[in-house]
Amino acid sequence: MIEQIAIALLGVSAVFLSQDHRADWRRWACILGLIGQPFWFYATWKAQQWGIFALCFLYTLSWARGVYTFWWVPTFGPWRLDD
């Protein structure tokens, strides 16, 4: 039950923030998405939903890409993220 609440709160928050027009808010979407991934892994493992379990790896890579883009890419030069 706790994993379902965490999935709902973190997932909806991540999607909501990913659509924000402010880059300083949008960058937090990937953090919340990554925080939610262990709950997805646990819930799908426990329910033996192997297809969704495999998709969790792709979602984790996607959220990790967001961390790279919004947190590690230089904020100057051609890679700058403008509002």
Can you put this structure into words, describing what you see?
The mean pLDDT is 90. Helix 3 (29-46) runs antiparallel to helix 4 (50-72). The protein has four helices and no strands. It has helices spanning 2-18, 23-26, 29-46, 50-72. It is mainly α and 83 residues long. The chain starts with a helix and ends in an 11-residue tail after the last helix. It is globular and about 40 Å long. The protein has one domain (2-75).
Number of β-strand runs? 0
- What does the overall shape look like? globular
Reading the helices and strands in chain order gives HHHH
Poorly predicted sequence stretches spanning 5 or more consecutive residues? none
Major β-sheet profile? none
Highlighted features:
single chain, 83 residues, mainly alpha, 4 helices, 75% helix
TL;DR?
By secondary structure, the chain is mostly helical.
Draw up the topology in text:
Blueprint: H1 2-18, H2 23-26, H3 29-46, H4 50-72
